[in-house]
Specification:
Blueprint lengths: L1 E7 L1 H13 L5 E6 L6 E9 L4 H11 L3 E3 L2 E3 L2 E7 L7
Helix pairs in contact: 1-2
The protein binds ligand 2BA.
The site of ligand 2BA has 12 residues, from strand 5.
């Protein structure tokens, strides 16, 4: 099991969430703020099986786009993938 943490731009978040949930993945959306630009962004937590990670990354790649904000290139997405020891849904 892995946890994908994806920081994406707000403009991409609705389409990304719809694509992820439509493909059967579970995701949690957290409102977040970038430390450099102090601009609102969205952090998605996606818990998934190891063999699902490539498909999830492909969806994020397809749905998230780089944009220039105030002369700075932001995104498409910043992604962390972590190993999860245990997953419980009680
Ligand atoms: P921000 O921290 O607001 O950063 C927005 C964009 O500003 C970054 O885009 C990057 O191009 C630039 N930037 C950030 N820190 C910089 C610095 N110290 N010096 C020069 N330029 C800098 P992205 O790299 O696409 O990052 C988008 C958002 O993803 C970030 O928003 C932040 O919320 C998150 N993020 C990026 N890298 C991260 C990391 N290593 N750890 C945690 N969050 C990260």
């Amino acid at each position: 099991m892995k946890l994908v943490t994806a920081v994406v731009q707000e403009e991409d978040s609705a389409g990304l969430l719809a694509a992820l949930t439509g493909a059967g993945y579970h995701a949690t959306k957290i409102a977040s703020t970038g430390g450099f630009l102090h601009r609102g962004n969205v952090t998605l937590l996606i818990g998934a099986e190891d063999d699902e990670i490539p498909a999830i990354l492909a969806i994020v790649h397809e749905r998230c786009h780089a944009r220039e904000v105030g002369g700075v290139q932001v995104g498409g997405a910043v992604i962390f993938v972590q190993q999860i020891e245990q997953y419980h849904r009680l």
